[in-house]
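The data are quoted verbatim here:
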Amino acid sequence: MRGLGYAQGNNLSTGHHFYRRDVEGVRTHKVHACITGHGQIERVLRFRDLLGAPL
C-alpha cells in the first residue's frame, strides 16, 4: 500500500485495518481491509452501496 501512496491509519478494531491516501492535504482515498467474517464488512458494504444508489 505504501508504494501506492497510502498510509496506514489507526486500526479500527482487531482485524479491521484502515489505509488513507492524501494529495496536497486532501483525503482522496480510503481503504478498509477486514479479515474474513469480520462484523464490520456488512456495514461498510452497505455504506458503499448507499453512496452508489440512484437518488
About this structure: Residues 2-52 form one domain. The mean pLDDT is 91. The longest strand covers residues 26-34.
